Amino acid sequence: MRISNSEAGNYFRGLLLLIRKDHKILEEEKALLMRFGKAFGFALSFCADAINDILENIYISDSPPVFSSMQIAKSFIKDGFMLACCDNEFHPNEEQWLRSVAQHNGIDAHWFHRTKKKINIGKMVMV
Predict the structure, then answer these.
(1) Distance CA 33, CA 11 (A)
(2) For residue 67, with 0-12 CB atoms within 10 Å meaning exposed, 13-18 middle and 19 or more buried, which class applies?
(3) For 73-85, b where at least 16 C-beta lie within 10 A, e where not — what string?
(4) Interatomic CA distance for residues 127 and 125, integer angstroms
(5) Distance between CA atoms of 26 and 10, rounded to whole angstroms?
(6) Which residues contact 3 (CB under 8 A, 6 or more apart)?
(7) Does residue 88 contact residue 119 with C-beta atoms inside 8 Å?
(8) For residue 105, what are the CA distances in angstroms to 50, 52, 53, 74, 75?
(9) Bridge partners of 71?
(10) pLDDT tens digit string along 20-62?
(11) pTM for the whole thing?
(12) Which residues contact 36 (CB under 8 A, 6 or more apart)?
């Protein structure tokens, strides 16, 4: 799936917001975000700086990203689940924020629940 540079920036910003929801950033999350940044064509130094600064950066709006298509929004939510669970924990703030992304993008709750179930998040440690 090809997306515009501005859409890629919105996607990456959304993933950054997601990783700060549990107030900690682990190495697994950093590595996965670096892969996303590289895939979007962002400079690795930009990605590393953004990741390292996200917990303290009060200037980034916490509003959920709104995408130009439902396909991109669904892809974002799936990637968000993967990112939120890469540390084997799924924090309630992460789930709540991903639900708000779904709502802001017109994705129904049934799709969200089915997708969460497919990813086996129910077996994750809920903190």
Answers:
(1) 11
(2) buried
(3) bbebbebbbebbb
(4) 6
(5) 22
(6) 11, 72
(7) no
(8) 25, 28, 27, 9, 12
(9) none
(10) 999 899 999 999 999 999 999 999 999 999 999 999 998 888 9
(11) 0.90
(12) 11, 12, 15, 79
- Amino acid in the structure at residue 36: F
How many residues would you count in the chain? Answer: 127
Both tokens of 31, joined, read 């590595």
Cα separation, 107 vs 87, whole angstroms: 26
Three-class SS string for 89-113? EECHHHHHHHHHHHHHCCCCHHHHH
Indicate the DSSP class of residue 121: G
Alpha helices in the chain (DSSP H): 5-19, 27-39, 44-53, 70-85, 92-104, 109-118
Q: Name the residue among 31, 41, 30, 50 with its Cα closest to residue 8.
A: 41
pLDDT tens readout for residues 88-120: 888 899 999 999 999 999 999 999 999 998 876
